[in-house]
Write a structure and sequence with these properties.
Layout lengths: L2 H21 L1 H5 L6 H19 L5 E6 L5 E5 L8 E2 L4 E2 H7 L23 H6 L1 E10 L2 E8 L2 E2 L4 E5 L4 E8 L11 H14 L4 E6 L8 E3 L5 H9 L18 E7 L2 E9 L6 E6 L2 E2 L5 H20 L12 H5 L2 E8 L17 H20 L1 H36 L18 E6 L1 H10 L5 E6 L19 H14 L2 H10 L17 E5 L4 H15 L4 H5 L3 E3 L5 E5 L2 E5 L2 H11 L11 H13 L1 E4 L8 H9 L7 E2 L6 H12 L3 H11 L9
Parallel strand pairs: 1-10, 14-16, 17-18, 17-19, 19-20
Antiparallel strand pairs: 1-2, 2-9, 3-4, 5-6, 5-9, 6-7, 6-8, 10-11, 12-13, 13-16, 14-15, 20-24, 21-22, 21-23
The structure holds 3-[3-(1H-pyrrolo[2,3-b]pyridin-5-yl)phenyl]propanoic acid.
The site of 3-[3-(1H-pyrrolo[2,3-b]pyridin-5-yl)phenyl]propanoic acid (0RA) has 15 residues, from helix 3.
Length: 684
């Protein structure tokens, strides 16, 4: 292509670019109806001056609202370049003001960190201005160029001499674009103050010529974000030291740079409970945080926990400090500057650049650790506040869990419904785990309400036996086994209800015996095969970790409800099982013949005596009336409890449980066949 053709092609591109901006201004500058876009016009120009300042060439920025609806932004930077652009026959200044994203072409030695909310450049401001005047002081001269709706009225010209350097832009926002062009001074002041905090040392002044009463406002903070944190804390109640003075003479301030990411962070705690955290990337606030905030939080939590551990501050409280504890009363400003940030959306409300997280975490971790080590007396007071928060949270959590547990038990449609006892402590209280609702009903009525609780379970509970894994194959055998058993247990509503009733946490790996709500856990099932099965299932559950601790410490018992009732005149005698019945018959018969137990004659004799007596065989606990149940099974004075204990041969115990409850059916069949000889009465 020839030079001329190239020039025309470029001109067309330029026109198209600014046309696109005017067609969809919202996409470039923000909402044109609610004022955000209008104010971004000012911020876009200021951001360019800030970039000049960050590059080290500018110290002062002046912002002025004029009485003719225009606004002027002036800086003492290098001034926008004025040299003729080769090929285009236009000054660099004109190109910068009329081409989208042209700024970078003329400035290779620094990256733009501010770049405005939309990072679009001053050309967008020009495109959306009815009128824009640009004055440049550079190379000893004063230059001038004026634009109408984005198009230069004439080429850049020299209008005088100048000893200074800098840029001054005055613009009138287009009434065709914006619903209103009235600026809000307070909105601008807020942003200017924020920028002054975020960029230490830069002086930004504000003048509103529409408000005669208001004098010039000057914002300059040599302490930068440290002063920002002090400002945030001004009206808050101070955290005090021993002498009653503000604990922090100065907020904590740390900074560092790693892999072209600059990180600055300042923070201090006040006496309140609210967190005030402001995160910025390239001077833009992320109200939804992002990777920089995540990195900061993990570093802070790590530093605080490390300090607490190194100074033995947690031991006696048995606590872990969480991020939530640290947050209380924390005011913090986190500001990073990074070449090419990635945000989750156009509005830049959340930073997503993933590399930022670890870099921020590393820098903050290192610098904050040093600060804590160098300020032990302040650190101790901060830690005291945080540990108090952790303690309060722990108490609140326990209370909440209590309420939740109670609520679940009282309101739930879960199969088991606990009838609790009145005494609220472990000592002297008992929980009866009862099979079925009818037995549960008798037990609830017959018990001593003050110290005996009843939890009826409906039918067979889940078999929670989990096969032992092969030890040699799997190094993680123990943990695997535990998680499997635990998830199996938690999958059953009945079992979760039981665990809750015991006062324990179904998901916990360890049991604190102090949490246990009852001193005795008594399994009370019918004296038939179903009852035995349910008892076996319950014991299988109690044999699982961590609940086996309850067996080991002797908390688990078996009730011994009678199987027979013999009416003798007006008296009733209760008899536990078949064997006791035989003994009873033998003792009470007038016939004192010596017969060999198990012989045919012996059996005949027993059967004869039985038929002469009034014997009732209980088919279940539900058949007993509440009084009978109290007298035979519940009353501590007369009942006979069996304590569940492991034998001396733990391996043998576990192998028996494996045989009875495991997956190996053949093994179980063998066991039953070889033990069947001992079974005389099978009630099916
Ligand atoms: C492009 C290149 C250079 C400076 C600027 C733009 C610049 C733009 C604005 C807008 C408002 N104030 C500004 N100040 C500077 C670098 C110039 C050089 O290398 O000398």
């Amino acid at each position: 292509m020839k030079k001329k053709a190239l020039y025309q092609a470029d001109s067309i591109k330029v026109l198209k670019g600014l046309e696109a901006v005017r067609k969809r201004p919202g996409m470039y500058i923000g909402d044109t109806d609610d004022g955000t876009g209008l104010h971004h016009m000012i911020y876009e120009v200021i951001d360019n001056s800030i970039d000049e300042a960050l590059a080290g060439y500018c110290k002062n920025i002046d912002v002025r609202l004029n009485s003719d609806e225009t606004v002027t932004i002036r800086d003492d930077g290098r001034g926008i370049p004025v040299d003729m652009h080769k090929g285009e026959k236009k000054s660099a200044a004109e190109v910068i003001m009329t081409q989208l994203h042209a700024g970078g072409k003329f400035d290779h030695d620094s990256y733009k960190v501010s770049g405005g909310l939309h990072g679009v450049g001053v050309s967008v401001v020009n495109a959306l201005s009815e009128k824009l005047k640009l004055e440049i002081n550079r190379d000893g001269k004063k230059y001038f160029i004026e634009f109408i709706n984005g198009t230069a009225k004439a080429a850049l010209k020299t209008i005088g001499k100048s000893k200074e350097t800098g840029t001054e832009i005055t613009f009138l926002p287009s009434k065709e674009i914006f619903s209103s062009i009235k600026f809000n001074a307070n909105t601008i002041i807020k942003r200017i103050r924020e920028l002054a905090f975020l960029n230490k040392g830069i002086k930004i002044t504000f003048n509103d010529l529409n408000n005669k009463k208001e004098k010039e406002l000057v914002f300059k903070y040599d302490g930068g974000i440290l002063e920002y944190v002090e400002f945030l804390n001004e009206k808050k109640e101070k955290l005090k030291n021993k002498n009653g003075n503000d604990l922090f003479k100065k907020a904590v301030y740390v900074e560092g740079k790693k892999e072209s990411i600059e990180i600055e962070c300042s923070l201090k705690w006040n006496a309140g409970y609210i967190e005030d955290l402001f995160a910025y990337t390239n001077n833009i606030n992320q109200k939804d945080g992002g990777t920089h905030v995540l990195g900061f939080r993990s570093a802070l939590t790590r530093v605080i926990n490390k300090y607490a551990n190194e100074h033995n501050l947690l031991k006696k409280n048995k606590l872990a400090i969480t991020g939530d504890d640290i947050k209380e009363g924390l005011s913090c400003v986190l500001s990073i500057k990074i070449p090419d940030p990635k945000f989750s959306s156009q509005t830049k409300d959340k930073l997503v650049s993933s590399e930022v997280r670890t870099i921020v975490e590393t820098v903050i971790n290192e610098k904050l650790s040093i600060w804590f080590d160098q300020n032990p007396s302040i650190a101790r007071i901060i830690l005291t506040k945080i540990i108090q928060a952790a303690l309060a949270r722990d108490v609140a959590r326990k209370a909440r869990e209590n309420v939740r547990r109670k609520g679940a038990l009282e309101l739930s449609g879960l199969p088991g419904k606990l009838a609790d006892c009145q005494i609220g402590k472990q000592e002297g209280t008992e929980l009866f785990i009862v099979e079925g609702d009818s037995a549960g009903g008798s037990a609830k009525q017959g018990r001593n309400r003050s110290n005996q609780a009843v939890l009826p379970l409906r039918g067979k509970i889940l078999n929670t036996y989990v096969e032992e894994l092969n030890i040699k194959q799997n190094g993680n055998k123990l943990t695997d086994h535990r998680t499997k058993a635990l998830s199996k247990m938690i999958s059953s509503n009945e079992i979760v209800t039981l665990i809750n009733a015991l006062g324990l946490d179904p998901k916990s790996q360890e049991i604190d015996l102090k949490d246990l709500r009852y001193g005795k856990i008594i399994i009370m099932t019918d004296a038939d095969v179903d009852g035995s099965h349910i008892r076996a299932l319950l014991l299988t559950f109690f044999n699982n970790k961590p609940f086996n601790k309850l067996i080991e410490h002797g908390y688990v018992y078996l009730a011994q409800p009678p199987l027979f009732k013999i009416n003798k005149g007006s008296k009733s005698i209760y008899i536990k099982d078949e064997k006791d019945l035989e003994n009873f018959i033998l003792q009470n018969s007038k016939d004192t013949k010596k017969l060999k137990k198990g012989s045919k004659d012996f059996q005949k004799f027993i059967d004869k005596e039985k038929s002469q007596m009034s014997i009732q065989r209980f088919k279940g606990l539900g058949e007993m009336n509440p009084d009978e149940l109290w007298n035979t099974t519940l009353d501590p004075e007369t009942r006979n409890l069996l304590q569940v204990q492991y034998s001396k041969d733990l391996k043998k115990d576990q192998s028996l449980i494996h045989t009875l409850m495991g997956n190996d059916v053949a093994l179980r069949k063998d066991f039953i066949t070889s033990n069947a000889i001992n079974v005389k009465n099978l009630d099916i």
